[in-house]
């Protein structure tokens, strides 16, 4: 995943309603949900739902297909997996495999060899 795509996905998921929609679609699995069902479950008016689904589509986090008169939305699992891979790429100093067991105490940021800033004395 490219950096710009990761930023777009994180920005889209950084909004509470869009995160709720995406989580609901992740739970629904590959079969997805009709737009009306999403709106009902999350108590969203159609215009609001349409706006947020558009933002998720723009970030490639959801796909949709037409079934009769309904639009069925699904989470884009390959994109989500790519985002997770991008985010864990440098986990634990590049040992991404150890991220499964990583905790704040086991996955420390790289040491910096910078001198701390000092106040100027005049």
From TrEMBL:
Keywords: DNA-binding, Transcription, Transcription regulation
Leader sequence segment: none
Matches recorded under PROSITE patterns: HTH_ARSR_2
CDD domains cross-referenced by the UniProt entry: HTH_ARSR
Transmembrane segments: none
InterPro entries in the record: ArsR-like_HTH, HTH_ArsR_DNA-bd_dom, Metal_resp_trans_reg, WH-like_DNA-bd_sf, WH_DNA-bd_sf
Gene3D superfamilies assigned to the protein according to its UniProt record, in alphabetical order: Winged helix-like DNA-binding domain superfamily/Winged helix DNA-binding domain (1.10.10.10)
Residues in HTH arsR-type domain copies: 1-95
Keyword Transcription regulation: yes
Region (Disordered) location: 103-122
Top-rank taxon: Bacteria
Keyword Transcription regulation: yes
Basic and acidic residues: compositionally biased ranges: 109-122
PANTHER family registered for this protein in UniProt: ARSENICAL RESISTANCE OPERON REPRESSOR ARSR-RELATED
Name the UniProt record assigns to this protein: Winged helix-turn-helix transcriptional regulator
């Amino acid at each position: 995943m490219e950096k710009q795509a990761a930023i777009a996905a994180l920005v889209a998921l950084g909004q509470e309603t869009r995160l709720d929609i995406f989580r609901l679609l992740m739970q629904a699995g590959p079969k997805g949900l009709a737009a009306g069902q999403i709106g009902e479950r999350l108590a969203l008016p159609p215009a609001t739902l349409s706006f947020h689904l558009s933002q998720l589509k723009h970030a490639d986090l959801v796909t949709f297909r037409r079934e009769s008169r309904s639009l069925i939305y699904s989470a884009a699992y390959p994109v989500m997996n790519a985002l997770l891979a991008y985010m864990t790429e440098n986990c634990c100093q590049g040992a991404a495999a150890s991220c499964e067991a990583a905790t704040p105490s086991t996955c420390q940021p790289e040491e910096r060899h910078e001198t701390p800033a000092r106040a100027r004395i005049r």
